[in-house]
Amino acid sequence: MTTASTRLQLKQVSAGYDSATFVLRDLSLDVAAGELVALLGPSGCGKTTALKIIAGLLRPARGDVLFGDEAFTRVPAERRGAAMVFQKPLLFPYLTVAENVAFGLKMRQTPKPETARRVSEALRLVQLEGYDARRPKELSGGQEQRVALARALVTEPRVLLLDEPFSALDVGLRAEMRALVRNLQRRLGITTIFVTHDQEEAATMADRIGLLLDGRLEQFSPPREFYTAPATPAAARFFGWKVVEGDLHGCQIETPLGSFALPADVARAGSDSHRAALAFHPARAQLVTANGEAPATVENRLAGRLETVIDLGTRLRYTVALSAGELVELEILFSNDHAYVPSVETGARVFVKIPAEAVKFFLRNK
User: Fold this and answer.
1) Which residue, of 53, 69, 186, 357, has the greatest Cβ tally within 10 A?
2) Is residue 294 very low, low, confident or very high in pLDDT (cuts 50, 70, 90)?
3) What Å distances lie between residue 100 and 80, 154, 319, CA to CA?
4) Are 340 and 332 in contact (CB under 8 A)?
């Protein structure tokens, strides 16, 4: 099977389903040929709307869609070379697996020998050899979604669009289908846009993630950067960072949780600001017992009380109620000798220690 992978661009695209409300606002994406990009975000943020615009099922109110260097904004869906796989497989119940896969080729009046060859190859790619004569009612949910994927691939699309295709599957099948799609995408080199609301799914599959919040692109970067260098407080919050607003005073930021020291470069950059936000990821925070380390030696320490301890087998999850009333969850992995797992009872006074290098600062202009 061959594909004609293409660069895909959205330029300042805005769209809605009525003239008064925009679901997407000035969305710009530049997806390299053969790249897999995940559009991530909560329900209603515009992910599926973006797919419909790329597929030609919805025309934007403004902005442009380019396949390669050619404007496709007004090109009808059937001429775009984009194939879409939906959350539900949408198979024809009265057709066999082979007939379902061949449907798009039949609409294009592809010769029967060529259709048979391409259907057979598509079924082989999705590991459904021998299922040609079965009906959809004889398939499992995972097998139905494989048929839908084969139906998309058989047309040899320039762009493959996946709209939360695994959300209805159980955990094991989701992992299996993720691996299948990622391997096929790499093997065939198809430019792919994958919509999901699952952070782990986006991070494990995508070359880059486009985080959509309230119809706007909040951040577009490789997955790791969302966990190490979120671009905005909103992006940080979505990926589980604790975000706290505060006031700048020289080289300090005063927050409801306590005072934090600013690195020298951040302090200089914030000379024209008086407000700031800081963020830290609970996965990088440490739990320190009140008698285990003198408070004067604890950097960026937050005093609190241990509320709950949950044993998750390979790790412990602690919930700490900070003095300011905020709750923070920390997870600490078991080591072989449990040396790094604090022995502390619920109700005890503790500190949440945040390494300076694990704190991200966001400056606000006056």
Assistant:
1) 53
2) very low
3) 21, 11, 51
4) yes
Taking the whole predicted model, whether its pTM rises above 0.85 is answered as yes
User: Residue 11's beta-bridge partner residues?
Assistant: 64
Q: What string of DSSP letters covers 50-106?
A: HHHHHHTSS--SEEEEEETTEE-TTS-GGGS-EEEE-SS----TTS-HHHHHHHHHH
**DSSP structure class, residue 227:** H
Distance between CA atoms of 117 and 124, rounded to whole angstroms?
11
Q: Which of 239, 318, 330, 235 is nearest to 277 (CA)?
A: 235
Name 322's bridge partners. 304
CA-to-CA separations, 311 to 292, 307, 314, 321, 335, in angstroms, rounded: 22, 14, 8, 18, 14
Q: How far is 106 from 118, CA to CA, in rounded Å? A: 12
H-state helical runs in 154-300: 171-188, 199-205, 223-228, 233-238, 264-269
Domains of the chain, each with CATH number or no CATH: 8-228 (3.40.50.300), 240-365 (2.40.50.100)
Q: What are 107-122's pLDDT values in tens digits? A: 889 999 999 999 999 9
**216-273 pLDDT tens trace:** 999 999 999 999 999 999 999 999 998 988 888 777 888 887 778 777 776 666 566 6
Cβ-based neighbour number of residue 101 at 10 Å: 31
DSSP element (H, E) containing 141: helix 141-153
| 151-198 confidence digits (pLDDT tens) | 999 999 999 999 998 887 888 888 888 999 999 999 999 999 999 999
> Judging by DSSP bridges, how do beta strands 208-213 and 36-40 pair with one another?
parallel
